[in-house]
Specification:
Order of helices and strands: HHHEHHEEHEEHEEEHEHEHEHEHEE
Largest sheet: 6 strands, parallel
Oligomer: single chain
CATH superfamily of the largest domain: Response regulator
GO molecular function: DNA-binding transcription factor activity; transcription cis-regulatory region binding
CATH topology of the largest domain: Rossmann fold
Radius of gyration: 20 Å
Keywords: DNA-binding, Transcription, Transcription regulation
Domain HTH lacI-type: 2-58
CATH class of the largest domain: Alpha Beta
Shape: globular
Organism: Lapidilactobacillus concavus DSM 17758
InterPro entries: HTH_LacI (IPR000843), LacI/GalR-like_sensor (IPR046335), Lambda_DNA-bd_dom_sf (IPR010982), Peripla_BP_I (IPR028082)
């Protein structure tokens, strides 16, 4: 794992600044540009470079559904994008990022597209109209006729509940996330919450009072955790499952503010195992989602589609790994 000093050197900032950025220090006064540099340096230093092949430098578009600020609030998608960009370069193509606010790329300048995030049916129709072979990442589009790369949710959520119960904890709460497609036309269900709810209900452990739902941001995790502390007092659950690492980090900040010991009183496990999880204090237990692999496989699917002219869509569902660190028993 890269050290704080390694990241500081690559980002061109001090080690203290790196530490505060990776810990989402709300009192730190640096620009979003500096934060982005730190996050990208941390991600890139954790990638293993591979040898490039020699091909004509044709362009592959990377379409992102989020803006730059949202990418900083939850670096999950940043990690996927960087993984895709590196793979595109390795196979000899040129990556070009597009936001959802820009006109969509078209052939012949572009040979294909990687669409990262959540898109509404209307947006998928517009993407189909470009006639570019497209692979979606983090959205199962098999029924829509597109290739896609997604993450398995059922098994890791079951692992988390099993782990908490194995250490004697049955009062398990959750900080769930909610989001909309970038055109604000479709509200998306959090599959992690639906899985958690079903597992807890089947085990007769589900308590709706121990669940909060908000945005997938550090601020949202902080606010929901404070609300839970104030409303539940001594009935605060002994374990919290957060739907992503940003929510978990916000919750850890709130628990620290209220002098609630982690993990002695409350254990927390996040989801995604972003680079930040390793550098936060206490180090965050989390479900590792191999975002580099997701980005890589999306490009490989696109390349397969280009080279074979395959018409049958494929969905690759990537497995996960539960990583236990200091934030949980």
């Amino acid at each position: 794992m890269a050290t704080i000093k390694d990241i500081a050197k690559k980002a061109g900032v001090s080690p203290a600044t790196v530490s505060r950025v990776l810990n989402y220090d709300q009192d730190l006064s640096v620009t979003d540009k500096t934060k982005k540099r730190v996050f990208e340096a941390a991600e890139l230093l954790n990638y293993q470079p591979k040898k490039k092949s020699q091909k004509t430098a044709q362009k592959i578009a990377i379409l992102t559904w989020y803006n730059e600020q949202e990418e900083l609030d939850d670096i999950y998608y940043l990690s996927i994008r960087l993984g895709a960009e590196k793979k595109i370069q390795e196979i000899g193509y040129e990556p070009q990022q597009f936001s959802n606010q820009q006109a969509l790329p078209t052939p012949p300048e572009y040979v294909g597209m990687i669409a990262i995030g959540k898109f509404s049916p209307e947006q998928m129709t517009m993407i189909a109209d470009t006639e570019l072979p497209t692979v979606f990442v983090d959205l199962n589009t098999l029924d829509d006729g597109f290739d896609s790369v997604t993450t398995n949710f059922h098994y890791p959520v079951k692992q988390i509940v099993d782990h908490f119960q194995s250490v004697g904890i049955n009062d398990i709460g959750m900080l769930a996330g909610q989001e909309l497609t970038s055109d604000q036309k479709l509200e998306l269900s959090d599959q992690r919450y639906l899985t958690f709810r079903n597992i807890m209900r089947d085990r007769q452990l589900l308590n709706p009072n121990l669940v909060r739902t908000g945005n997938f941001t550090v601020k949202s995790g902080h606010d929901m955790m404070l609300e839970m502390i104030d409303q539940l007092d001594f009935q605060l659950p002994h374990a919290i499952f957060a739907a992503n690492d940003a929510l978990a980090i916000g919750a850890l900040h709130a628990l620290k503010e209220r002098n609630i010991a982690v993990p002695a009183r409350v254990s927390i496990i996040g989801f995604n195992d972003s680079t930040v999880a390793k550098y936060f204090s206490p180090q965050l237990s989390s479900v590792k989602v191999d975002t580099e692999l997701m980005g890589q496989k999306s490009v490989e699917l696109l390349l397969d589609r280009l080279e074979t002219e395959r018409t049958v869509p494929i969905n690759l569902n990537i497995g996960t790994e539960l990583i236990l660190r200091e934030s949980s028993k």
